[in-house]
Amino acid sequence: MINRPILMCVLPGAVWLCAAQVQPNAGLQKVVLENDFVRVVELRIPAGVSEARHSHGRGVTIALSDYNNEMTDYPAGTVTRRHTRFGEVRWAEPVTHEARNTGTTEQHVLRVELKHEAPGELSGAAKAKPDALDSLIVCKDTQKLIFENQFVRVIEERVPPGVAQAKHRHAHGVLIPLADSDIEAVDDPGGQPTRRHLQLGDAGWREPVVHAVRNVGTTALLNIRIELK
Ligand SMILES: [Zn+2]
Ligand SMILES: [Zn+2]
Questions:
Q1: CA separation for the pair 54, 72 (Å, rounded)
Q2: Ligand 1 centre from 52 Cα, in Å?
Q3: Closest ligand (CA of 133)
Q4: Is 29 in a helix, a strand, or coil?
Q5: Mean pLDDT score across all residues of the chain
Q6: Ligand nearest to the Cα of 143, by number
Q7: Phi and psi at residue 10, in whole multiples of 5°?
Q8: Which of 50, 88, 95, 163 could form a disulfide with 63 if both were Cys (CB 3.0 to 4.6 A apart)?
Q9: Would you identify the CATH topology of the domain 24-114?
Q10: Does the pLDDT value for residue 226 go beyond 70?
Q11: What pLDDT sits at residue 126?
């Protein structure tokens, strides 16, 4: 089914028709968030289903299910097979590949693609200063660095019910809850306490903020925060 539209491309002169009609992976992925900085794509690949050859930009992938898949990268033709677990977070360089869900479970993934080819110069310079409100310092018990490179800083937040985080800073970026939780946040300066429900898999853009946060629910907060540089 997936290959049929591609066969149309071999007809001489049919290239334009092809380009207009081929959407080989339609239905398997959808854009759930897009702005000047990122495009967040949700993939849902049923067991046994293949994605036709496609490309995507650099960014971060977050697994929302346990799954097995096989990927063939081009032009090298290198084949990679792996098992991925719910909550795994990976950095991905730009790639052109085919992929197939080789397991028995749905592959459910959020892919945060970065639109800028280089890190922002202003935020990069600002980050060079020591920051007393750095969330990894202020919230060292509840926030830990998963990885960092010249484009992003990726943080896992775990906040048990009833626990509060003192005032701390975040750069702008994408927040992805890996569990349902309820928080009360006070933005600095002068913000009123605001309650918010965070829902598993509901990716959201977050502007730069200084805030204090308390888990006011009965479930543990578990978030992945991708801060852009
Ligand atoms: Zn892909
Ligand atoms: Zn925070």
A1: 11
A2: 9
A3: 2
A4: strand
A5: 88
A6: 2
A7: -75, -15
A8: 88
A9: Jelly Rolls (2.60.120)
A10: yes
A11: 54
